[in-house]
Amino acid sequence: MRKITTKIFAILAILIVSLSYAQAKKPTIMVVPSDVWCNQNGYMMVFDNQGTTVKIPDYKRAFQENSDLLAVISKINGLMAERGFPLKNMESVVKTLESESAENAMLTSKSGAGVVESPIDKLKKVAKADIIIQLTWTLNSTGPKKSITFNLQGLDSYTDKQIATATGTGAPSFSVELPVLLEESVLAHIDNFNVSIQKHFDDMFENGREIIIRVKKFDSWTGDLEKEYDGKELSTILEDWMAANSVKGRYNTSDATENMMLFEQVRIPLFDANGKAIDARGFAKNLQDFLKKSPYVIPNKLMMKGLGQAVIVLGEK
């Protein structure tokens, strides 16, 4: 009897671990209206960025004024939640950002290695979602019947690479409720869409998340990336650090001069030893600390663009 009980507990433990593992592997998702939808519906802000006209989505006004947007995103959120995907609510994230600086401040360029952040970059940093689903839809009318043409784009929030897509038009229906029309249109496509998202996330879980790291220098710094430490150039030291700290040593040196280096396709773990999610800033902070220590003792400044791009500028803070 004791042996049977022991076996039952062992099986239950395995099941619990397996379920926990499966849950941990689900990507976190945030559904957002696409730039196209915002532009078509008049929810854009226009700025003069050093002589160039720039249009960016006005998400806050869109949520405050368009009840259809709330209903449609809620419907997609519900469909994803039914399939086990954790969700970040965009409306809540937008409210969190209300206390931040005005959107036009994000488009003011800085000298040197200043980085521009768009509203979607700021949303990503607050939400920290793995996948962004951009949603575009159009309401069609054929006599008394209506249908929805939709486009879903799944984007890796760290790289902005498209990893899943679904598009189609639902059958004409007498229903006048937009969420119902959308559900009828999307249901035939959403499972294949989710398979693509899950496949991408499984690859990240196994091989690491992809980010970009740039290393630059301030003009005031007398050193450069060809400066030698113990007979080894700084550029080589940086590559050695990338090889040692990226997942399976996977990274690509896309460009390198005496004044800058560009590391792309840098694979970083999804979580640290404490189970905390790691983004480009967390990974780059380790490199920043490495360069501050002996024998290099290089003061440097860390700047971010969204979740997936970090810039380290050598020579000053």
TrEMBL record:
Keywords: Signal
Signal peptide positions on this chain: 1-22
Xref: InterPro entries: DUF6175 (IPR046173)
Protein name: Uncharacterized protein
Originating organism: Flavobacterium franklandianum
